[in-house]
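Predict the holo structure. Ligand: iron/sulfur cluster.
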Amino acid sequence: LSAGTPVKAGAATHCPYCALQCGMRVTVGETVTIVPRQDVPANAGGLCQKGWTAGEPLTSGERLTTPLLYGEAATWDEALDVVAERIREIQREHGPDGVAVFGGGGLTNEKAYQLGKFARMVLRTSQIDYNGRFCMSSAAAAANRAFGMDRGLPFPITDLAAADAVLIAGGNVAETMPPFVRHLAAMRDRGGRLVVVDPRATATAGQADLHLQPTPGTDLALALGLLHIVIAEGHVDEDYVTRRTSGFDAVRTSVAAWWPERVERITGVPVARMRLAVEMLGGAARAAILTGRGAEQHAKGTDTVSAFINLALALGLPGREGSGYGCVTGQGNGQGGREHGQKADQLPGYRRIDDPAARAHVARVWGIAPEDLPGPGRSAYELLESLGAGGGPRALLLFGSNPVVSAPRAGHVAERLGSLDLLVVSDLFMSETAALADVVLPTTQWAEESGTVTNLEGRVLLRRQAAVPPAGVRSDLEILRGLAVRLRGAEGFPTDPREVFDELRRASAGGTADYAGITYERIAAETGVFWPCPAEDHPGTPRPFLDRFATPDGRARFVPVEHRPPREDVDGDYPLYLTTGRVLAHYQSGVQTRRVAALNAVVAEAFVELHPDLAERMEVSSGDRLRVVGRRGVTEGVARVNPAIRADTVFMPFHWPGVNLLTNPALDPVSRMPEFKVCAVRLERAG
Ligand code: SF4
């Protein structure tokens, strides 16, 4: 496949992968040349291996370039006609909710917005959610209940360099987003301290001044113990707590029971190390507490994040310049993807779908009656689990996601997808999920189209087109328009991203994530604009909580929470904890990065990381093949013996099919996040 016709040499754009959204210049010619941008603060001239090699998927010979209809090549008209006809038939028989939509946190803001509008206005289905539910939903839920607003980092990432202490709970940024580390390194160069909480001695933990290594599933107890020490040793910022928060007394009472020795018994973290962490944080003039998926992907993920937010509030950090709490969002547009209506419970502008004023506003922008807007639907896993079952959707349209690899209890998810009357997948490559589809629609990718993304700081950025897409592929916006016209003769589904963005601005106006004042021109001129930005003469809001929080009384809310064990604990049959995560060379379910030779040269297949003591007991060496057996499935991987992991825990990356056959779909009651980060397994030698 040729790289496509260049549109602009050195087009200023952003990486197609993670939420750091590193700035880069792309030139598409015989080959693709990528040069990091200095003007984007998040990476300031840095890129990781994934970013440097992001040109390869553009020219991959495995690229899909023609629609597939029941396995046969088809024209676009044939494919879209069949999809529209089948949707009509299924909705006639099963009603509007007979058809569901599943989106992705990698879709641009324009696509995420249009997907939500298509689902609710054209299909009139309530059944829409997206894979971001598996990413940061617990942090979003906890931030919303504490601050009345969820914006990953409610401060510019460069603030971290000026802090005196940073605690990261369950985030391995040195592997997942390496340029992030330069901000932490700058902090440490000034004498600041880095504390990392992780069951593994990760690359990030290796750079920390203090590593706390809790048993998987016990971060919540650890956070309660840290707050207990903060209170006991007089580190509470009483003036801040009085002026800027509510509800501290209940939390003060509840953490009294979490004395350090009790927490040590539960977490395995020595009391002395907990005290040291508190000393580092409590003694810092400016400090930040960050959470990542390790703390969040639990059936108690929301409460775990609340416990870390309580800690930050007691120390007086959120809403103070140079300090705060933040979530290290994972997917490329994980932040924007959750603001514009892909979520089952939300409308554009980060509005609640059950809020009558929000419904009236969005319905007005869309030119429909509020009562024609469906209500809330099922969350991602619940939606996938309901497919094809009694009362569940009979058809699914899926954009930018690969749940056969990325969903928990993935074998069951594959079965549900296989039971559908219609599965339509839009993707660049024949992903494991696309391979199950009745209709596969080949789409454009990052450098072949324009659009905006919102990075982990809440900074809205512009991706510019660098090349004409290969013949035969269409953008998701074109696909949605093609279906909207066939199903309802609908107007209002433009294919120009700028037109979609202008409507998104109107739909988000007055909402929490207010983009009304953001234009493509401003983003280009200002290298990104922070939301909320309610008017074109508004400067944007890098630090939204400096004066007040987004709660009705302007105060941040302490939320009392209690620790409980993982939903599935170890026992005689399954004596080891399994935890999952990412490696530097790959991204998410690997659909793109598993097709990049230079990245496969680094890691080509799933591995099982285990401690030398465990390896010795099993007489296993690095390179041996292991079977990992859990209650929901079995997978295999190559042994990697590594003292960096606890002896009671094994780790597998989730970029390849397999490990999510084992993970536990037990859901957090608030965020509906599955418990990806801990389940019970046993190891066997393969063969
Ligand atoms: Fe930057 Fe993330 Fe892309 Fe790496 S994957 S270059 S850290 S945006």
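The two ends are 40 Å apart (CA to CA). The longest strand covers residues 634-641.
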